[in-house]
Every structure is written in C-alpha cells, then in structure tokens.
Design goal:
Keywords: ATP-binding, Cell cycle, Cell division, DNA damage, DNA recombination, DNA repair, DNA replication, Ligase, Magnesium, Metal-binding, Nucleotide-binding. It catalyses: ATP + (deoxyribonucleotide)n-3'-hydroxyl + 5'-phospho-(deoxyribonucleotide)m = (deoxyribonucleotide)n+m + AMP + diphosphate. With 567 residues, the protein is α+β, with helices and mostly antiparallel strands. 40% of the residues lie in helices and 22% in strands. Strands 13, 14, 15, 16, 17, 18, 19 and 22 form an eight-stranded mixed β-sheet that branches. Strands 3, 4, 5, 6, 7, 8 and 9 form a seven-stranded mixed β-sheet that branches. It has a five-stranded mixed β-sheet with strand order 1-12-11-2-10. β14 and β15 form a beta hairpin. α1 packs antiparallel against α2 and α4 packs across α8. It binds adenosine monophosphate (AMP). Adenosine monophosphate binds next to β1 and β2.
Length: 567
C-alpha cells in the first residue's frame, strides 16, 4: 500500500474540522486499506508507530529532525530556522522545502506504508556510538523519497502530532461506519485490547463476529478504570443508590499485575511495563495469585521500614534513578494492595459487577507479606462511612474510594461508578504545554510553566494558569532537562491558548498544583475560563500522562464547591 494514500487522507483531514466529514475520510481510508495493513495504518493515523501502551522514544528531537530535513532537501539550518519562525511547524517546513528541493534527487522509489512504519519503528532500536547520526540518516532517507505531503506527515509523525484532529475516540465511530458494526461493540473490543489497529483488522475481516472474538490477554495491559471526584458523602450515597462498597484509598502508584504461566508483568497506569523495576515482587506475586493466568488491579505502595507506614510514593520513583534497583528493593520495601480482577484463568471478569469481581478476587488471592487485599466494607450509614474515613486517614492513607456494587469494570473510563473521597485540600493535575524563559537567577531554565486542563468533548487542552513557584533550584534544573526533550516548534494542535509562551512542549507531562483559590475570568486570558490564585508546584506526576489530567469540568465543579463554602 502506498504511503501517499495515507498522507493524502491526512491532508484532507487537516483541511476539514467537520466531525462527519472527518469520519467519512477516515472510514473511506480504512475501507480502502487491505486488512493486513490496518495494524500499521491505524497507529500511523494517530501519529505513532507503537500502540498507546508502548512508550518508546524515537530519540529524535526537534533539532535532529531539522538536520534530517536539511540533509534531504539541501537547505541550511539557518534557512530552516527562518522558515520555522514563519510557518511555526517543521512539518510544513519540510513540505515547502521538498517542493522547492535544491538537490534535485529523483525520488527513486515509491514510499509504502510498510517502509515508513518499519523505518520509524526502527528508530528506538538504533543505539550506541554514532546512533544520533544513524537516526538522522534513516529519517532523511525517508524524506528523500517523499513528495511534499508525505514529507510533512513523516516529520509530524516523528514529532508525535499530526495536527489533523484525530484522537483515539474518533476511531470508534470511523471503524463502526467503515465495517458496518455497532459503535458499542467497537468500544468494547477496544477496552479489551487497547489497540484500535487490532480492532479495525478484526472488524474488517469478520465484522461483529470478529470483534466478539477479541478478548483480554495476560501480558497485554488494559487501560485502568479511574475514579471521579466527589463533593461529600451524601453525594456519594445518592449516586450509588444508598449503599456502596468503600475501600481505603492508598497513596502509591496504580499497578496492574499480570500472570501468564511462569511469566509475570507489572504495568503502570500509563500502561508502561515496570516489571524490571520490582524484581523482588515476582516470586511473592506468583505465589499469591493462584490461577495460571490472571490480570489484577491494585496499588503499589512503599513502606517505611522504621514505622511500617506507607510513604509518599514519589520518593521511590525518584530513587530509582539514583540507586541500583536491588539496593532500593532492600531499602524501600514495596507491597501491592489488590482491589480488582479483570481476568481470572479463562474467565473475563470485566463485564461482571463489582461485588462478583471482589468475591473472585478474594477467592484467587492468597495474601502474603508483599501482596495484600485492599480493605473494603459495604456501607450505607454516613456515620459509619465517616468513621471508616477517619480510620483510613489516621493510618496515613489518602481517604476512601466508593465503588458502585453493580458496576462493571469500565477500562480507561473516569465515571461516577468509582468516587474519591479525600480529606485534604484538593490539588489539580494539569498538563504542561509550554514555558517562559527564566530571568535573573533562573536564566537558562524554564522559569515558569504554562498549564492546561483537558476538555474531552473538544479533545482540546485549555490553559488554566502559569506556575513559577514551589520549585527548588534542583527541581527546576531537572525539569528543564526533561522539558528540553519535549520541545516542539509551535503550538501543538490540540492546545487552545491565547497566551504565547516562549517555548511549546509536546503535551505529555502532568504537574500537581496547589492553589489558594480558583478564579472565574482571571486577569490573564485563559481559554478554560478559569485561573488559579497563588498556584504552586507540588510535584511532577510521573505516573500520569496528559489523558488522565483534570478536566475543565473538574475545575468547574471545584469552583462551585468553593463558592458554596464562602460565607
Ligand atoms: P487520583 O489519582 O487522585 O485520580 O485517584 C485515583 C487513583 O487512586 C487510582 O488510579 C489508584 O492509583 C489510586 N487508588 C488507591 N486506592 C485505590 C482503590 N482502593 N481503588 C481504586 N483506586 C485506588
């Protein structure tokens, strides 16, 4: 299949913003794609070459990519930088320069989807001496064989933003339309596989029957179910129909243990494979999880050796860079507290109600020193719930989570079936989209950051605040190093901002932010319509990515709650 077909579809998608029209373009592309190529075309349409759960960096940043464009078109870095300023996007620069190519190399081969896909996939594997140069050579070779539109989208794929307004949610409807299957069936198949490429292929080859054959598979991460915020215990009971299951909310990181015969895996909330970081858990987990095959859900917590109490988890994530993993395992023992089961032996559990899953969990787990079950109680009396919450807080936990006893496991969803009941002042988890250059003492660092909240309906990130305090010098330096790698040439297409920071970042990292007050119509024009008074940086949430940050709706709710509390 020619890459041109895909690039042309992307070009059309970039030009239209109408939902139905976009759907038509995608569904036509999917229909025209031979089914065995769908597992390449679908990720490429989302601007990536690995499924969402594989976080593999290409190791090519903006600067290297500029070099590749220069090499393939014969333009100097200076000329490229100048055009960059004009066009704001290296993809468009590549398009323009390919049109005007100085080095008249005849494109000797037609680019195929396979060729682009395989070459981009190769990038993370190029390592060792001279690897940067070899990576640049690989990309520039692709660009040399590209026409202008192909070049534009190859560059944007490497930058991770196609700027065509296609996010995962949209694929559900396009696949449904292309292969004439119900959207809910497509969604369900996606919950099980977390892979629209696989889903599209099954739908293309065997329609609804093909989709119904897809299932969970141990070793393959599932997008975890998330919890909504709640305002108070009364609201919780109303939403849950008078009674709910209450569990302790532990402060650790979400972890999804998988067992497949002798194999054991641990996946994070971002669906990254963390198995290697906790070699000391493999044996205890293998023993505690009784079925031969299982997918379990839980929280990984670090224990203070002296007090036996849980300790802030960010400590562990930080230490992992400083020490050898085996030393850390000794120094900071970890435990997994389990609260759900998705797959037990051959039985898929996610469609079964919470109470049934809990019963199964208790049946298949033999708790030990490292593997525990989260404490849970079915309660309907507000007094008793408050008592449980006080107990949890005094044990050093974050609060409680209420779970609807009849709810199924909704992979990747943040709905009202699970509700957080916290005690402390709320913080916000916001996406870092840009930064301003530091001045004075902070020269040479990103002195302050621009933060945004999600708006799932529009798939946009809306700005909420800048944050320039709460960082230690050391933190600021480390963050600068980290964000340097995430720099992109212009405003990412899913960011909606009226503020123009000095630098734009690939919207990926999340800051936890403390504030004194949420302001409606703040003095600075933020596209969320809200602003924060005295925002302070608390931490970088290494366990979250942009898709699990707080939403404008969350802020709206917190704002209303705050206003209610005012005298
Ligand atoms: P938050 O990160 O504030 O959105 O809270 C949701 C997170 O709480 C989940 O992703 C889990 O990592 C964590 N958590 C701790 N205890 C539980 C529990 N019993 N059930 C579900 N999630 C829990």
């Amino acid at each position: 299949m020619k890459y041109k077909v895909l690039a042309q579809a992307c070009q059309e998608l970039e030009k239209t913003s109408a939902y139905l029209e976009k759907n038509k373009i995608i569904s036509n592309l999917l229909k025209d794609t031979p089914s065995e190529k769908l597992e390449m075309v679908v990720p490429l349409l989302l601007g990536r070459v690995f499924p969402a759960y594989v976080s593999r960096e290409t190791g090519i940043g903006l600067q290297q990519l500029k070099k590749a464009v220069g090499r393939s078109t014969g333009y100097s870095e200076k000329e490229i930088n100048k055009l960059m300023e004009e066009l704001g996007d290296l993809g468009r620069v590549a398009e323009k320069l390919t049109e005007e190519k100085k080095q008249m190399t005849l494109a000797d081969e037609t680019l195929t989807v396979e060729k682009v896909f395989q070459n981009l996939r190769k990038l993370p594997r190029i390592t060792g001496e001279g690897s940067v140069d070899r990576k640049i050579a690989t990309v520039s070779k692709l660009l040399t064989s590209s026409d202008p539109v192909e070049g534009k989208f190859i560059v944007r794929t490497i930058l991770g933003d196609l700027r065509i307004g296609v996010a995962e949610g949209r694929l559900r409807d396009a696949i449904a339309e292309a292969f004439d299957v119900p959207a809910e069936t497509v969604e369900h198949a996606y919950m099980l596989t977390t892979d629209y490429g696989k889903v599209a292929k099954a739908a293309a080859e065997e329609g609804e029957r093909g989709l119904s054959k897809l299932d969970l598979s141990a070793g393959h991460p599932v997008n975890p179910m998330l919890a909504q915020r709640s305002e108070n215990i009364q609201e919780v009971l109303e939403r849950m129909g008078g009674e709910a299951a209450f569990e302790i909310k532990l402060d650790g990181i979400r972890i999804q243990p998988h067992k497949r015969g002798e194999d054991f895996f641990l996946f994070t909330r971002r669906m990254e494979d963390y198995t290697h970081m906790f070699p000391d858990l493999e044996k205890p987990a293998g023993k505690s999880i009784k079925p031969d095959k299982a997918i379990i859900d839980g929280e990984l917590v670090a224990i203070n050796k002296d007090t036996g109490k849980p300790m802030p988890f960010q400590e562990v994530l930080r230490r992992r860079r400083k020490y050898d993993i085996r030393d850390v395992a000794e120094e900071i023992p970890v435990q997994i507290h389990l609260f759900d089961v998705l797959l037990s032996g051959e039985t898929t559990m996610i469609e079964k109600p919470y109470t049934e899953r809990r019963k199964e969990l208790e049946k298949i787990i033999e708790p030990g020193e490292r593997i525990k079950l989260v404490e849970h109680r079915i309660l309907g009396d507000p007094q008793e719930i408050r008592k449980f919450r006080t107990e949890a807080l005094s044990m050093g936990h974050e609060g409680l989570i209420a779970k609807n006893p009849n709810s199924t496991y909704r992979a990747g969803r943040r709905e009202f079936a699970w509700l957080k009941i916290k005690a402390e002042a709320e913080t916000l988890d916001l996406v870092v989209v840009g930064a301003f250059a530091g001045k004075g003492d902070r020269a040479g660092t990103f002195g302050s950051h621009l933060l945004a909240a999600r708006q799932p309906e529009t798939e946009k990130l809306k700005t909420v605040s800048r944050v320039g305090s709460g960082f230690s010098d050391e933190e600021l330096e480390k963050l600068t190093e980290k964000f340097e790698e995430l720099r992109v040439g212009g405003k990412p297409s899913n960011v909606d901002s009226e503020i123009d920071p000095d630098y734009w970042f690939k919207p990926q990292e999340v800051f936890e932010i403390n504030y004194e007050e949420i302001q409606k119509s703040p003095s600075e024009a933020h596209t969320s319509g809200y602003g924060l008074r005295f925002p302070r940086f608390v931490d970088i949430r290494e366990d979250l990515n942009a898709s699990s940050a707080d939403t404008v709706e969350d802020i709206d709710r917190l704002f209303k709650e705050q206003e209610k509390r005012k005298p």
